[in-house]
Specification:
By secondary structure, the protein is of the alpha/beta class. It is built from 27 helices and 23 strands. α17 links the parallel β14 and β15. α20 packs parallel to α21 and α22 crosses α23.
Length: 695
């Protein structure tokens, strides 16, 4: 079941607040614990009107500060400083906190500062995509003809869909045209399965309240404070004789007149009492004049009080300011809130929309969400990882950052004096409560570790003295720490070769039950998705049985790290039955083994890379395949192909390659490339920590 929806608009003054109010009312009927979130607000120093309205009207039990991430100025500052990734990370973190605490999160996109801002549209679409949230698009009817409106709606929906934003519905708001005609034409043209609704324009929602008018004209209330939610449907300027002015009063009009025109003030007040004249919403007295005492006394005796406001502005200046007010729905104006919700529910099939929202299943995992989940999970489980290569600056720097971020506890292997000296030279923060330094030569566990290795390997001809020598090797010592449960995992290979890193693990950590092959995967963080590549680091030329094991291990690894439905592509130079040859047959046989051993795994092979990841090519080459065009786990036929492909994709697309992560071992031992960056080491420690929870 889906637990969120994102309301996005494509223009200013679209009335998305009406949609959010209606959605909140709909959601609260079946899901009482609903949160409200706006990633971006206008001004941090002023309470956001719509957040305040939603939280107070629906009694949402959350702090105001939790309902947004950044003000517009803060966002601009981060953007100018090249810290846009920090913005996304903070938004994801605040959203996930709400997702964990509440049953549902209603997310509302940012408000527009100008009509049709491209930035606004792209930013909100990107946030929705990175959060993996389905989108309701709100389109304002600002078009002269129905075809123009319909064409614009279709173009905007397609624009979002092309960017892989999950549009589940579109609501045309403030529509001045025939609702049924607009809805029928949109349904005819739009992608099947997208919900469509049309909300007519209600002029009253576009009119300001007396409360809003006071704020804009810097007014002072003389009378009628209890009626400030009155709506000024029209304005009438009093600059004529009373007899000519009174006929111009219409229902719920705002009467604007000079404060020294006692005749108009008294006449208008009497007209409001009289059943022969319509009610008025209020009176604005201009010029900074206050009525005479006798007039005020008459007002006090009025049995039908109305708001009377004074302002220092002139009559026509005040009228001009009032005409430019862009009304909002605010918490105190219960009548406008009710009107908005009623309008939403009378125009939208709420039962169908609710079903649509709840039935959405999002399988995509974006790179930002993947990284957030990794970091968040690692912080929760607080595992202990050993880094044997304490003589490498990258290792020390990564350890410092890991400790500072409270990601895991770290043991560095090396001479404590030399390590601390180098740490000081590098100027690193060094939290000794989270980082320990162990010298294998002087460790209290040295004898125990050497004896354990001897007992495990004596049948292979290993002598005790040789075991003692081996245990002075940091790779053996670190691996034994993991084997004995003194550490949860090990990360090495920044200095040592792959063979040197994994040899001890193969000797005494061994493979998992049912597995004979140790292989590896990279998590490829592309611009819009996460793919799993295997094997790109360990097995040079796997036979069919080994290739099947690699596929099964990779699918399980994908699921462990957040890819809910692994779709495995067994790659080759041909797709389906189109080709033949020894390598194709190896992949075909491996695919059959996977299907036989693990019928729960969606797998396709042999299949070419383009058919595996491109929906159009996949449908063309293998139209009935549940994997073609949708693969997220890609298994290469040999190490040469896999290693070159991952490096080519990494360099040409700018993708982040997280790994390699070894799989198939009883305990997590992971190998680094000798060209590993500090970020690579940091990420590998994180995945090792998470991997240890599943061993």
């Amino acid at each position: 079941m889906n637990h969120s929806v994102y309301v996005i608009t494509s223009s200013a003054q679209s009335g998305k607040s009406i949609v959010s109010l209606g959605l909140m009312q709909m959601l609260k009927r079946t899901t009482p614990n609903v949160a409200f979130f706006k990633p971006l607000i206008e001004n941090k120093n002023v309470v956001d009107n719509h957040i305040d309205t939603i939280l107070s009207h629906f009694n949402v039990n959350m702090n105001y500060e939790d309902a947004y991430s950044y003000s517009r100025s803060e966002f601009t500052e981060h953007q100018n400083q090249g810290k846009i990734n920090e913005v996304y990370d903070t938004i994801i973190e605040k959203y996930k906190n709400l997702e964990n605490e509440f049953d549902f999160v209603l997310v509302e996109g940012s408000d527009f500062t100008e009509e049709g801002s491209v930035f606004e549209i792209d930013f909100n679409g990107s946030i929705a995509k990175n959060l993996g949230i389905p989108v309701l698009l709100v389109v304002k009817d600002s078009f002269e003809t129905v075809p123009e409106l319909v064409n614009n709606v279709i173009a905007e929906v397609n624009s979002f869909l092309e960017k892989d934003v999950n549009i589940i519905g579109v609501i045309v708001n403030r529509c001045e045209k025939e609702q049924s005609e607009v809805q029928k034409l949109i349904n005819k043209e739009i992608k099947k399965g997208i919900f469509v609704a049309v909300i007519p324009n209600n002029p009253e929602l576009g009119k300001p309240s007396i409360h809003e008018i006071i704020n804009h004209i810097r007014g002072h209330v003389l009378f009628g404070k209890e009626k400030l939610d009155n709506i000024a449907k029209t304005t009438v300027i009093g600059a004529m004789q009373l007899a000519n002015f009174l006929p111009r009063i219409t229902p719920d009009s705002l009467c604007i007149m000079p404060g020294d025109r006692s005749d108009l003030i008294v006449g208008t007040s009497l007209a409001n009492i009289s059943p022969k004249y319509p009610n008025i919403s209020g009176i604005v007295l201009t010029g900074g004049f206050t009525p005479e005492r006798s007039i005020i006394k008459l007002m006090l005796d009025n049995q039908k009080p109305i708001p009377i406001i004074t302002t220092s502005l002139g009559t026509f200046e005040a009228a001009s300011v009032i005409s430019r007010i862009k009304p909002k729905i605010y918490a105190e104006n219960k009548s406008k809130i009710k009107l908005s919700i009623d309008l939403f529910e009378s125009s939208v099939d709420v039962e169908e929309l609710n079903t649509k929202i709840n039935s959405v299943k999002t399988e995509s995992l974006t790179p930002r969400m993947f990284q957030y989940n990794l970091l968040s999970n690692a912080k929760k489980i607080q595992k202990h990882i050993v880094l044997p290569e304490g003589n490498d600056d990258r290792i020390l720097t990564a350890a410092s950052q890991i400790a500072e971020d409270k990601v895991a506890k770290i043991t560095i292997l090396g001479d404590p004096e030399k390590v601390k000296s180098r740490v000081a030279q590098l100027g690193l923060n060094w939290d000794e409560t989270r980082i320990s330094i162990v010298d294998p030569h002087n460790s209290e566990f040295y004898e125990d570790y050497a004896n354990t290795l001897y007992e495990l390997r004596k049948s292979k001809g290993l002598e005790l003295t040789s075991a003692q020598d081996l245990m002075l090797d940091a790779s053996y010592f670190g691996t034994m720490m993991v084997h004995k449960g003194h550490a949860d995992g090990m990360v090495s290979g920044a200095v040592n070769t792959t063979a040197h890193t994994i040899k001890p693990a193969l000797q005494f950590v061994k493979t998992k039950p049912g597995f004979k092959t140790v292989s590896s995967v990279f998590f490829m963080l592309l611009d819009d998705r996460v793919l799993v590549y295997g094997d790109c680091a360990i097995v040079p030329n796997p036979n069919p049985e080994q290739l099947a094991e690699i596929a099964i291990s990779s699918a399980d690894s994908a699921k462990t790290f957040g890819i809910e439905t692994p779709k495995v592509a067994m790659l080759s130079y041909s797709s389906g039955t189109s080709g033949s040859g020894e390598e194709v047959e190896k992949v075909r046989k491996a695919t059959e083994i996977v299907k036989s051993l693990r019928p729960d795994i969606l797998v396709e092979g042999p299949i070419q890379y383009d058919a595996a990841v491109d929906p159009i090519v996949g449908k063309s080459k293998l139209p009935n395949s549940p994997v073609a065009g949708q693969a997220n786990v890609l298994i290469f036929p040999d190490l040469n192909t896999g290693n070159n492909t991952y490096k080519a994709v990494q360099r040409e697309t700018g993708a982040l390659a997280v790994g390699p992560m070894l799989q198939g071992l009883n305990k997590p031992i992971n190998d680094l490339s000798r060209g590993a960056t500090i970020e690579d080491i940091y990420n590998t420690v994180i995945i090792t920590a998470i991997q240890s929870t599943n061993n």
